[in-house]
Amino acid sequence: MEKLRHRQELVVSLLFGLWLPHCLTQTTPPSRANLASTPSGSPQAQSEQLKVRLGGYPRKHNEGRVELFYKGEWGTICDDDFSIANANVLCRQLGFVSATGWTHSAKYGKGQGKIWLDNVLCNGGEKSIGLCKSRGWGNSDCTHDEDAGVVCKDERIPGFVDSNIIDAQVDEKKVEEVRLRSVIAPGRKKLPITEGVVEVKHKEGWAQICDLGWTIKNSHVVCGMLGFPHERKVNKNFYK
């Protein structure tokens, strides 16, 4: 009887020893190497708010070449496999309710720098383009002749906060921030801000630019930095 019990305990121990490693194999999360083989958004892009802007010329304020700010550098998206679902995700990130279309073959002009994403496949419900499947950040076989663009419905998402600030690279290799500050009450509620006092980031605050010697060419440059295709004449006396 004693020997029989001992044999039963031995059989149970052997079965448990075979079953436990099998369970651990099934419940252990896949390795980073396995995850890398599946196109998906970068952890950095998912955890941080990805900056998106529209560029190019000619265009309206709700359309343009898509540019993404990643790892301290602005870059574009290749038009391979691009779809209206991708455009919807991007337009919502820009504060518009949806997309009405998208463009290919650098319709708004060729971008510069990196082509950050290629073969982007969104379902359409993602909160960020960084959450859509792709070949991975910086992995592309495209040229800037294939830069993708979007056309957003000219209707803003209620309550969407838009800082109306754009980053621009200057000669000193520093990032300069420029913004328009609306001084008209109705203009403060309308986004994007299209008219106001020009301010630049200086140290820890914002500083205005003196209008002495200011020309229409200066306005053209600032409007371009803010993503607008051109400038309009402003009544200077109103701002004095």
From TrEMBL:
Q: Which UniProt keywords apply?
A: Disulfide bond, Signal
InterPro entries hit by this protein? LOX-like_protein, SRCR, SRCR-like_dom_sf
Q: List the disulfide bonds.
A: 78-142, 91-152, 122-132
Transmembrane residue ranges? none
List the SMART domains. SR
User: Quick one: signal sequence residues?
Assistant: 1-25
The keyword Signal is annotated on this UniProt entry:
yes
Question: Record's PROSITE patterns?
Answer: SRCR_2 (PS50287)
Where would I find the SRCR domain in this sequence?
A: 52-153, 178-240
Which Gene3D superfamilies does the record cross-reference, listed alphabetically?
A: SRCR-like domain
- In its UniProt entry, what is this protein called? Lysyl oxidase 3B
Supply the source organism's classification. Answer: Eukaryota, Metazoa, Chordata, Craniata, Vertebrata
**Which gene is annotated as encoding this protein in its UniProt record?**
LOXL3B
